[in-house]
Amino acid sequence: MATTTVAPPLMTEERRSGRRSGGQNLGRPGFAWALPATLFFGFFAIVPLVLVVVLSFTSWSGIGSVEYVGLANWRRLAADPTMTQSLWLSVLLTALGVAVQTPLSLLIGVWAAGHQRNRAVLSAIFFLPLLLSMTAVSVLWRVLLDPNFGVPGQLPGLFGDGNLFGSRTGAIGVLVFVSSWQFIPFHALIYQGAARAVPAVLYQAAEVDGAGRWGQFRHVTLPQLRNAMITSLVLMVVGGLTTFDTVLILTGGGPGTDTTITAYYMYEQAFKSFDFGAGAAIALLLVVVATIISLIVVRVSGYDKMRSTMEGL
């Protein structure tokens, strides 16, 4: 007599999930998991920002009682030519930093993602500035570029009188150079990771179509690095607009006020003139400007929609 085999009932989704998890449900983590990070961000970011907003409508010297002055700080800053100049200088330094750092970090990052001889050793040496603080880097270059005892003073044929900090052009050039020297390795690291994530099959297809090194870089590498490029650009914009310690140590805002950027002017108002209300207003304005520029970059680039790349596959 033939026997009939009865198939076991299909395992439900709940039972399959339970078996994979050892009898426990694999649901979305609860809010409790995010609570520590939320509290940390709220205490060290949201609360200080709210206090800065409140302080911007007051007059306070750091000692004594706080006096509410309404929009007086904002009206004074709107009529202050140094404030207008500081905003322009901040945008200028940021634009110059982007123009210098982006192509160099892109090329170095793509090169470091390859398999050339001694690539690992050279990359490790090149990335050493990332291990140093901005303060240490600024002190180092301040000594190296000293007009009396530094390198420029020993090469008058190349640097003239050797005082790079004595002119507006020279001081701005030093700030751009020092910032680029430290942060190009950081952005190159972003491009290196993104370049290694580009599928090799795309290069193989481009090679079959007859594309050379330049053609592969232009038609394969660059489109695939689009999201990494926008990420790097946003970081450059925010970092350039909020830089402070480089100006403080290298130029002190000089000569005159030729390198007094917005962040440094905020420091002068708050900690030199003891006008914390005006300093808070400048800080809030800087946050707003950096946020608006970053949002424009993200929106114009389409990065918020993550279009047109296979990056990360």
From TrEMBL:
GO terms for biological process: transmembrane transport. Keywords: Cell membrane, Membrane, Transmembrane, Transmembrane helix, Transport. The chain crosses the membrane at residues 30-57, 87-113, 120-144, 164-184, 228-250, 276-298. It is a multi-pass membrane protein. It holds the Pfam family BPD_transp_1. Its main location: membrane. Gene3D superfamilies: MetI-like (1.10.3720.10). Residues 87-297 form the ABC transmembrane type-1 domain. Residues 1-24 are annotated as: Disordered. It is found in: Cell membrane. InterPro entries: ABC_transporter_permease, MetI-like, MetI-like_sf. GO terms for cellular component: plasma membrane. It comes from the Bacteria. Belongs to the binding-protein-dependent transport system permease family. PANTHER family: ABC TRANSPORTER PERMEASE PROTEIN, INNER MEMBRANE ABC TRANSPORTER PERMEASE PROTEIN YCJO. This is ABC transporter. It comes from Micromonospora acroterricola. The lineage of its organism: Bacteria, Bacillati, Actinomycetota, Actinomycetes, Micromonosporales.
